[in-house]
Write a structure and sequence with these properties.
alpha+beta; three-stranded antiparallel β-sheet; 343 residues
Length: 343
């Protein structure tokens, strides 16, 4: 209790010193802005005082938050820094009482031993369910992960189950990504979800889209139904797809529709890529209707041709990774910020 009171006393003294320095600075700067007029001098002194307080404590709060996040997200790094600081202070304290050899023996040597133990017995493995995408484990845990174990469940997941988890994790994050993008970029609050259309299947989706190119909407959105897409999800060897086209309509300022078909995901080692195509559902009423219909039909044909060529020629980028528990490293918040900032 006494130590806590001492700490609070020190913090209070620091606070008073900061406030005194801000007050002195305000008294100096205020009259300069007020140009010698008493009422303006007082006004600007008060403005400077409050602005300085806001700025200082705003940045102080940010520093504290960053430190806290760092401590939560990177505990091992902070632990190493703590070891270095602790044993360095111990070394200089021992130097005052003993000679350098003894001080070195009882401070720096234990620090080196702790680092050796850390390097020998602790490892980092992928864990894409965490914000850092990493997890610190023991050497035993590291070896099990290398064998393919999902450490959360202490078992090796069958390929079918693992790939299904990756698809579900990716699909879940895609929705979060779309929601954030439309909120930040278009100031549009939308709740996106995966849907199916009762009249669209794997045999007729091309004809359906070509036919609807001659209307104002590629898809009749009123006829779309929310769906549990996992019921249509099928994994074959190193690919995953759906027995019925899964549609992701994205509303708001700019409407688009994404289609996932029988070949939607392909896996290689611990990476994966996606096959999908999407169309911007735009129809310009101001332009000649026949020209707009022709443009939309070309857009459909080009997108379908691009999709089919990618599959035939196996043009796929394995953009994302997944861990042994089926979590993807796709970060919806990071991706959305990059799009919002035009990266």
């Amino acid at each position: 209790m006494k130590k806590v009171l001492k700490i609070l006393k020190i913090l209070f003294i620091i606070f008073i010193i900061i406030e005194i320095m801000i007050a002195i600075g305000s008294v100096v700067v205020g009259p300069t802005i007020g140009r010698g007029k008493p009422e303006k001098d007082i006004f600007w002194m008060l403005v400077c005082f409050f602005v300085a307080n806001v700025c200082i404590y705003e940045y102080l709060i940010k520093i504290i938050v960053l430190f806290y996040k760092g401590l939560i997200l990177y505990p091992l790094t902070y632990f190493k820094v703590f070891i270095i600081i602790f044993f360095t202070i111990l070394f200089f304290k021992l130097r005052k009482k003993f000679n350098n050899k003894i001080a070195f023996k009882y401070s720096i040597i234990p620090m080196i031993i702790m680092f050796i133990l850390d390097i020998s017995f602790l490892r980092v493995v992928p864990d894409y369910s965490s914000k850092t995408h990493e997890k610190t484990v023991t050497l035993i845990g590291y070896k099990k992960y290398q064998q393919g174990y999902c450490l959360e469940e202490d078992r090796i997941l069958p390929k079918d189950e693992l790939y299904k988890r990756v698809v579900i994790d990716d699909f879940t994050k895609q929705l979060i990504f779309k929601d954030i993008v439309y909120k930040n970029k278009y100031n549009s609050i939308e709740k996106h979800e995966y849907m199916i259309h009762k009249d669209i299947n794997l045999d007729n989706y091309k004809d359906y889209l070509r036919k609807n190119a001659y209307s104002k909407e590629y898809v009749n959105y009123d006829e779309l139904e929310s769906v549990d897409y996992t019921k249509y999800l099928v994994v074959k060897n190193n690919t995953a797809g759906f027995t019925k086209p899964i549609i992701l309509p994205v509303g708001g300022v700019r409407v688009s529709i994404t289609f996932y078909l029988d070949l939607a995901f392909e896996f290689k080692d611990n990476t994966y890529g996606t096959y999908r195509f999407y169309l911007f559902d735009e129809f310009d009423e101001r332009k000649d209707k026949e020209k707009e219909y022709k443009r939309r039909l070309e857009e459909v044909d080009n997108e379908l041709l691009w999709y089919e060529n990618n599959i035939k020629k196996q043009r796929i980028s394995y953009n994302y990774k997944f861990d042994n528990c089926g979590y993807s490293n796709f970060d919806p918040e990071k991706e959305a910020i990059e799009i919002y900032n035009g990266i």
